Amino acid sequence: MNNGKNYEKHVARKMRRRFFLFVRVSGKSGDYGADVMARTFPLMRRVVVQCKHYKKPVGVEAVQEAISAREYYRASKAIVASNNTFTRNAKKLAAKCGVELWERF
């Protein structure tokens, strides 16, 4: 995986294997923080995912983007997926705001 777009496709593939439905990669800038969108099984709830392919731990900004995407798309769940870990502050904000973090995903 050499760039963010490839990582978004990687996340989408893994989500399909985990039985998420209608998984699609946004594939554009201006996506309001949702790089990947899907529906949960079996309840069909909307999920938005902010993907971060970083060489360093992911900070609070990624969580803020996921919160914005959840509100904009009226999703039930927001997730930040990263190939790396998350900072302490990112974990704290995610826990407070109900954002799921997928480390080393």
- Structural class call reads alpha/beta
Total strands: the figure is 5
* Largest sheet entry: 5 strands, mixed
The largest beta-sheet arranges its strands as: 1-2-3-4-5
The count of helical stretches stands at 3
- Backbone CA Rg: 12 Å
| End-to-end gap | 12 Å
User: What would the principal axes of the Cα set say about the shape?
Assistant: globular
Mean pLDDT: 95
Helix content: 25-40%
Q: What is the N-to-C order of secondary-structure elements (H for helix, E for strand)?
A: HEEEHEHE
Task: Describe this structure in a few short sentences.
This protein has 105 residues and is α/β, with parallel strands linked by helices. It is built from three helices and five strands; from the N terminus they run αβββαβαβ.
Could you please describe the fold and organization of this structure?
With 105 residues, the protein is an alpha/beta fold. It is built from three helices and five strands, in the order H-E-E-E-H-E-H-E. It has a five-stranded mixed β-sheet with strand order 1-2-3-4-5, sandwiched between helices. Helix 2 (60-72) links the parallel strand 3 and strand 4 (77-82). Helix 2 (60-72) runs parallel beside helix 3 (88-97). The chain is globular, with a radius of gyration of 12 Å.
